[in-house]
From TrEMBL:
It comes from Seohaeicola zhoushanensis. This is 3-oxoacyl-ACP reductase. Belongs to the short-chain dehydrogenases/reductases (SDR) family. PROSITE patterns: ADH_SHORT. SMART domains: PKS_KR.
Amino acid sequence: MMELAARLSGLSAMVTGGAKGIGAAIVRRLAAEGVRVAIFDRNAEIAQALAEDCGNGASVAAVDLTDFAAVRAQIALQGPFDIAVNNAGVDQHAFFTRTTEEDWRRLLAINLEAVFNVTQAVLPAMQERGFGRIVNIGSEAGRMGSRGGSVYAAAKGGLIAFTKSIAMENARYGITANTVVPGPIDTPLLRRAVEGGGEKLLQAMENATLLRRLGTPDEVAAAVAFLASREGGYVTGETLGVSGGMGIAQA
Ligand SMILES: NC(=O)c1ccc[n+]([C@@H]2O[C@H](COP(=O)([O-])OP(=O)(O)OC[C@H]3O[C@@H](n4cnc5c(N)ncnc54)[C@H](O)[C@@H]3O)[C@@H](O)[C@H]2O)c1
């Protein structure tokens, strides 16, 4: 049986959107398991404080993830990485008829194109080394659709199909690719999304799950840590809900 300490220790990882919320929990979890983590986030100050707190050689790449050239340059500088976690994402609540072309471009840029940027930049070194773990953070919206979140759902649905395709093309190099789909997780993003709706909206989100509660960033980080680990090596192309049973809550 694999030693627990050997699951992740000594590996290197990059985590996008790692300064806050779910990303920060992933950074802490990986660092605690002995991974050298690079936090890719535009919020340099918070990311730096987190890196110092984590220790274990954690570093920061202060980039806008939609800037292809900047992302490539930072990956060349701080890589190669054994693990890439594409976590950064932005939600928006608006019915489709009120959605503008600018909204479409902005949401796709961070939720989907940034993943393209990172994945293209990290894969060659993973292929060369014969090992890699790609873990993408989707959303139940990407499986179920989202009333008032069509563009976000489109991007996250695209992410799931993209991840499966990457898994298919890279299995022969020892690289796995999986998507973790959170349900309502208590983070700054969720708090921004329910602004205005208050307690009622929070309650509705809790009721949309089987477990009748919000999830925590640490619960998502635990799933990511498994998929990113050496012992997760026989799991690929999967979509794992960490959503309190949201997908079957209405059944
Ligand atoms: N919170 C939830 O309930 C929930 C539910 C389903 C899916 N998700 C997904 O989980 C992921 C993390 O969400 P969260 O709630 O932790 O979000 P958050 O808003 O709390 O944190 C997002 C982080 O990404 C960074 N970021 C955003 N755009 C960036 C850019 N262009 N360049 C660099 N950094 C950028 C932000 O600075 C921030 O640190 C997202 O992909 C989100 O879609 C969250």
